[in-house]
Amino acid sequence: MALAQRPALLSYQLEVERCYIDGMQLAAKSPAQSQIVLNTLMMPEHANHFGNVHGGIIMKLADEAAAIAAMRHAQKPAVTVAMDSMTFRHPVHIGEIVTCTAAITYTHNSSMEVTVNVTAEEPITGKTTYTNSAHLVFVALDDQGRPSHVPPLLLSTDAERKRYAEGKLRQERRLADRKRAEASSP
User: Fold this and answer.
1) In what order do the strands lie in the sheet with 111-121?
2) In whole numbers, what is the pLDDT of the chain averaged over residues?
3) Which residues of 26-46 are buried (b: 16+ CB within 10 A; e: fewer)?
4) Which of 8, 61, 66, 126 has the fewest CB atoms below 10 angstroms from its CB?
């Protein structure tokens, strides 16, 4: 492991070690334990006025896939609190199968970042096109509807550690943006 990578890894290990709630440690979970793949056939009712699938339908599917992954990870109800921008790189057509693959990429206290990658498959030819991705943030809720701690992520690969570090940076940016917005609002 390169020396430059060690501080992030050590920081992550400390976060995992400190995840104690009421004297009990929450068991870390790998991203694979909560990953979800949601497949949906696009039908005429999903079309916009151009005959392609409406972007709002794809956003809804991404949110649903992310919610399932978040609830699987937390083993509690979870609600969406943020969605980073979603840029559509290619249109999705009626008759294609939209696949949303959602995985937890970052956790902290009660929040979870879920990355959703979206593809469209032409079922006859099997041609698959990457259409977009998004990062969504969820908060786990306890029985009284208040934020509740979530298990840390158990990261086994360099790719998982990289996604975690990138998620942490995104969350820091989101919090700074929110703080600036609150300071500038009347």
Assistant:
1) 36-41, 97-108, 111-121, 128-140, 78-83
2) 89
3) eebbbbeebbbebebebeeeb
4) 126
Question: Which pair of tokens denotes residue 99?
Answer: 């696949």
Q: Which residue has the tokens 């969406």?
A: 80
Is it the case that residue 136 has pLDDT exceeding 70?
Answer: yes
Within 13 A of 42's CA, how many CA atoms are on the CB side? 28
- Judge contact between 34 and 48, C-beta under 8 A: no
Q: Which two tokens stand for residue 155?
A: 């990261």
* Domain boundaries along the sequence of the chain: 28-176
pLDDT band of 18, cuts 50, 70, 90: very low
The identity of residue 141, as a single letter, is: L
* Gap between the Cα atoms of 34 and 77, Å rounded: 14
Query: Identity (one letter) of the amino acid at 75?
Result: Q
List 118's β-bridge partners, or say none: 100, 132
The separation between the first and the last C-alpha atoms of the chain, rounded to the nearest angstrom, is 49
The pair of structure tokens assigned to 68 is: 């399932």
Whole-model pTM: value is: 0.84
Please enumerate in sequence order all residues whose Cβ is within 8 A of that of 6, keeping only pairs 6 or more positions apart, or say none: none
Topology at the third CATH level for domain 28-176: Thiol Ester Dehydrase; Chain A (3.10.129)
Q: What is the pLDDT of residues 145-177, one digit of tens each?
A: 999 999 999 999 999 999 999 999 999 999 998
